[in-house]
Design a protein that fits this description.
9 strands, Nucleotidyltransferase, domain 5, alpha+beta, about 425 residues
């Protein structure tokens, strides 16, 4: 696991962000939708420059020159070398080999530090324009894999199976907000083969709640976290924070016995043990979906009606949409065997996805459902904004908007929890304090 920045480093980040002289951000929502997009992209350029790898003080090329190659490669999902040659970007800028040279010089700590710095500024931008809140949030945690066809060496290559085929992958843990009014990928971190799942879960929860100052939340995790250690981590963290959790239960022998009874029921204080005889106690809920099928859930929620868990857990699937957005069209293709290079490109794709979601949240809140930017359109506009020859025309930008899909229609900053769900959470917190 990589080290997180200390409190002093975060304080310095906040001070630097509040001392900026960017007056454009204050007036970003003034004007037509095309003007808003143009100003937003200029702000994003400055934020993305903070993610650029270190350059020497007398370097021939600036950060914007390298960033232009990365954005062009992300637009087509192509290799950096192919993109540089096909668009002749090396005529008036750095060659692809120069960019790859700087990427080869990166190490894991530097890539992590650059990502956290840029992600922090992007978070402050979203918070400043009131499209980010910390109360009654819903968080989804999951893993995302990227195929790797090289040799099985090093500490970052995982073995897995997909569609009954053995594969080698690099793996990251992804944390997303999955509310109706905020659907953002807020954090990503690489996972090595030596990292234990419950320690990864604990580290990610501590960072997200501390850095983003989460007041209360509901956490959704996949059945890959259904283990004694992970459940105990969730329980301990829930006892010290305003948090509840929900996950599907793996159908082991004891869970199958409850499902075979064909009865919707809540089993309080259900006990599960591992091979070391360590135990975890939680609420096991057997719920029936609309098709009449029974499924098991593990949770610490106070459940009144078991079937109510389905619409709650359905929000976790938003993270699958977020993961697809990372790959298409933001993830750059590479054949590098070095994990720092792959990690840097993955985090670049995550930052692009975060920025794309923020601008759409701003547009939908200000101008309505007909002002939506598809992911590929967002990248194309970012490419044009970086071009010294063309630039962006607000009137033409207005013509590229689409109607927002049903799954992405943002609301105002209102919690997506129902009154009954809020009441159940309140009862849980009261029981904890007593």
């Amino acid at each position: 696991m990589l080290e997180t920045p200390s409190g002093k480093e975060l304080i310095l980040m906040v001070e630097r962000s509040t001392n900026t002289d960017d007056n454009e951000e204050e007036d970003i929502l003034k004007g037509c939708p095309g003007e808003v997009v143009c100003v937003f992209l200029k702000c994003m350029e400055k934020i993305f420059y903070k993610f650029c790898f270190p350059l020497h003080w007398n370097a021939k090329y600036k950060k914007g020159d390298f960033f232009r190659i990365l954005v062009n490669a992300a637009r087509d999902g192509d290799f950096i070398t192919n993109e540089s040659y096909s668009h002749k970007l090396d005529d008036d800028g750095p060659a692809a080999d120069t960019l790859l040279y700087h990427l080869r010089k990166l190490d894991m700590k530097t890539a992590d530090k650059l990502y956290k710095r840029a992600n922090w500024y992007l978070y402050l931008f979203a918070k400043k324009h009131k499209v980010f809140r910390r109360k009654n949030v819903q968080i989804a945690i999951d893993f995302t894999d990227k195929e790797y066809w090289g040799e099985l060496d090093g500490e970052w290559v995982h073995k897995t199976k997909k569609s009954k085929k053995k594969m080698r992958v690099h793996r990251w843990v992804v944390v997303s907000f999955v509310d109706r009014d905020q659907k953002y990928i807020i954090y990503v971190e690489p996972i090595s083969i030596s990292d234990e799942t419950h320690k990864v879960l604990e580290s990610v929860l501590e960072r997200v709640f501390r850095v983003y100052n989460i007041f209360n939340a509901r956490v959704y995790v996949d059945r890959g976290f259904f283990s004694v250690n992970c459940i105990n981590v969730l329980k301990d963290f829930s006892a010290s924070h305003r948090m509840t959790w929900l996950m599907p239960a793996v159908k082991n022998e004891r869970v199958k016995e409850k499902i075979d009874l064909e009865i919707e029921k809540v089993y309080h204080n259900f006990t599960m043990r591992n091979k070391k005889r360590e135990k975890a106690v939680f609420n096991l809920v057997i719920a029936r979906n609309k098709k009449g099928e029974l499924h098991a859930f593990a949770t610490d929620l106070i459940v009144l009606t078991p079937s109510d868990l389905y619409p709650c857990y359905a929000r976790r699937w938003q993270i699958e949409t977020n993961n697809r957005s990372i790959r298409y069209p933001f993830l750059i293709t590479t054949t590098s065997k070095r994990m720092p290079t792959r990690d840097y490109l993955m985090k670049f794709a995550v930052l692009c996805t975060f920025a794309w979601m923020v601008i759409n949240a701003l547009l939908l809140r200000k101008f309505g459902l007909r002002c939506w930017l598809p992911g590929r359109t967002f990248v194309k506009l970012l490419v044009k904004s970086l071009s010294p020859e063309h630039g962006l025309n607000p009137e033409r930008v207005t013509k590229v908007f689409r109607k927002a899909p049903a799954s992405a229609r943002a609301q105002t900053s209102v919690s997506s929890l129902s009154p009954l769900q809020k009441f159940c959470i309140l009862l849980k917190f009261i029981s904890i304090t007593i």
